[in-house]
From TrEMBL:
Entry protein name: Aminotransferase class I/II-fold pyridoxal phosphate-dependent enzyme
Cross-referenced Pfam families: Aminotran_1_2, Methyltransf_25
PANTHER family the UniProt entry points to: METHYLTRANSFERASE, UBIQUINONE BIOSYNTHESIS O-METHYLTRANSFERASE, MITOCHONDRIAL
Signal peptide segment: none
Annotated Aminotransferase class I/classII large domain residues: 391-519
Methyltransferase domain segment(s): 47-139
Amino acid sequence: MTRWYAEYFTADYWSFARHEYTRERTAAETAYLLQVLGEHAPGRRLLDLGCGTGRHAVELARHGYRVTGVDVCAWALEQARSAAAREGVRVGLIEGDLLERVELPEADAAICVQAFGWGRDDEQLALLRRVRERLVPGGLLVLDHSNVAAILSRYRARDRFEAAGDTFDFLRSYDPLDGRSRGELRVAHADGRVAVLRDDVRLYLPSEVVSLVRAAGFELVRADAGFTAGAAVQPETRYVQILAVAAPRPRPAVLGHRGRGAEVDLRWAPDEIDFVRDAIDDAWAAVGDPREPARAYSLDDPYGSGSAAPVLARHFGVPLDPGQVVTGAGTTGLLHALAGPGRLLHTAHAHPDLPAWSAQRGAELRVFTPGQDVAGERPTTVLLERPGVRGDVLPLEQVAELAEAAAAAGGMLVVDEACANYLGPRASAVPLTTRVPGLVVLRSLSKGYCCGGLRAGFAMCSPDVAGAVRQAVPPLGTSALSLEVALRLLDQGDVLAPLRQAVAAAKPELVEMLSGLGCRVERGHPALPWVVTEDELPPWLAGRRLPGLTRVSVPLSAVRRAALRRAAA
């Protein structure tokens, strides 16, 4: 189906538009674009979305930008191509419908001037998300739109314009229920030719455009009025320019494990399996023939709560109602499901998955420190890692205070306890779910249990937020086989006690060795099998690099500890 705008912006339209988009207006708009691009764009690769005849693209290319223009109208692109040739500049041109799948090159910035609102809201949002994916992190979006408040203040159903012997009649109607202006432009040329061009435009308030931009994964810089940098937008402002930067692209933290390590690789601890292998074997033995649970499709228990709640209650020593439990595809899968719009508070070195996915869905991210007043921030979600990457374990009474503050603001506290396995079940915040509101505690069997491949995760919730978690997490997220093995393993009790003892015995040697290499070491909790340092490691030693930190796993086996001693000697 041909969309209206594919047949609208032709030579007949531009016979009128040339009187509106004068040289002076184009020069003023281009001067503004040059200013904001120079201030905020991280590079000079530029997308011009809906470039038309190239009135901005050509001038921006003349100032050194590597411009790629995209437009659906072949006639307009031919004019842009000719204009670039006259000016002696190179402009890449792509013919395509931006509301469909157009292959866009990577860019440092994108501009869209008077070319927004042609489709439905969901199509505009999809377009903005595709643009964000093609912008480098921190890349700039300049999105110009017509403010419906200003338009409606002087909206006329009929209008006429005459110039150079041509007559242009506009017939319009505005539907306040869908926010669209529909109409036609009748062009009567001086030579007697008549053309009828029909349009169907979604008109937005600035606040609506900002919401779409944020939902697409951009962070708002500011809004300008009338192509004037820093000018405040007023209800009567006709043209509004939204400036936003692309938030970091979601990149699952597991991808940070890729690549080869150094001579001694302490990015992870493969020798943890030596302390839990017997328990894993016992769990599989208890399952028996895996073919039966592999065939199971638990429609009568889609969230795994019926089978999981009794085991989790025994494991954590607290009564849990099945309605408080939701299973999912590991902690990562549960975090992905819980990512959403709103306002997310997270600690400075939080695991990146939830913040990145939330930003992609339009969330506002803010860093907080435990102990500050989070209720005043009115968060949708507060993310707490317990233990944190530095090995700190927030006391349970402070966890309870955080949950109550989040709930009082209408939000929830998500406690990521993926690494709390090392501390034992009695150190968990799960018991708090029976007495404080707004709390979700996440657990899985990756860390310590060495069973990440099961993809079994558990969300244990305060009753007041359990329903919201179920709405977010897809049912049947964990296979029946994985869930049964995981529960058999958990039902053995605290099987990681030998691992904790081994970590406590081996950790001091690693701390002493790193200190001898000139590294300032943060030990963290004695049961956690890693330390962190802000200093550079020697080239023969690999740790897990994090923003501003390097995490070094404690070698547990005699072989790995000997390898570390030899390399450090």
